[in-house]
């Protein structure tokens, strides 16, 4: 961003993005409430990248920076274990989406993200690699498989090619990890995304409306978006993000205070926050 945010906006984000010690995320149900509140969040990004992040929410501070040796960092380890538990619970969408960034999406925001990144069945032959198509055929027959079994049944001997294809299928919102196993050896269990979120993935939204709804969601949790920020967060061209924000201004949902800068038209007071509460 080209300029520092006002202090009251940073304070607002501290609350909504749980960048305060009193609001830090420690358990899976707290992580799910956080993701539902913000609509979508990165998994392991730190203060050097814009947008809400589970790692920052686990740290409970706005200046959290991922150390070089993440294996010995307790906060990174806690975030990783929470990610595994959220995958098992299946209440929020998780996959590597735009630019390979691991992302959590609240169910209410799955349809807009799918409108941006999803690949329809009619387009799979032209938009997916042959390796990805092989994997998809196997999963559609079996519905759920561990990594090694999926590689073997798809006939893919090259591990790197298999990994690239799985990233491709996740980015297309066709395949998601549904379980993480550590014994007898580490492996992911892979499932069809439509098996976990059938209603959300069958909705059809025009791209323009989808970006507008994502922009609305981001502005609600961020309080303000500066020039280029939304584009960096969701990985779309800046002109497209700008059109979405201007559409919110036309609705009366947002106000433009200067070129490329948008704030909530109703102010921050009317935005509800999600305080921590005991598990039900």
Straight-line distance between termini: 40 Å
Strand order of the largest sheet: 1-3-2
- Main pleated-sheet profile: 3 strands, antiparallel
Computed structural class? alpha+beta
Total of helices? 14
- Output mean pLDDT: 91
Beta percentage is 5-15%
Write the layout of secondary structure elements.
Blueprint: H1 7-16, H2 28-38, E1 40-42, H3 54-59, H4 74-89, E2 93-96, E3 102-105, H5 110-117, H6 124-127, H7 130-142, E4 144-146, H8 147-154, H9 159-171, E5 175-181, E6 187-192, H10 193-196, H11 198-202, H12 207-222, E7 224-225, H13 229-234, H14 238-251, E8 254-258, E9 261-264
Describe the structure.
By secondary structure, the chain is of the alpha+beta class. It has 2 domains: 7-111 and 206-264, no CATH class; 119-172 and 174-202, Winged helix-like DNA-binding domain superfamily/Winged helix DNA-binding domain (Arc Repressor Mutant, subunit A, Orthogonal Bundle). It has helices spanning 7-16, 28-38, 54-59, 74-89, 110-117, 124-127, 130-142, 147-154, 159-171, 193-196, 198-202, 207-222, 229-234, 238-251, and strands at residues 40-42, 93-96, 102-105, 144-146, 175-181, 187-192, 224-225, 254-258, 261-264. Strands 1-3-2 form a 3-stranded antiparallel beta sheet. A 3-stranded antiparallel beta sheet has the order 4-6-5. It has a 3-stranded antiparallel beta sheet with strand order 7-9-8, with helices on one face. It starts with 6 loop residues before the first helix and ends in a 16-residue tail after the last strand.
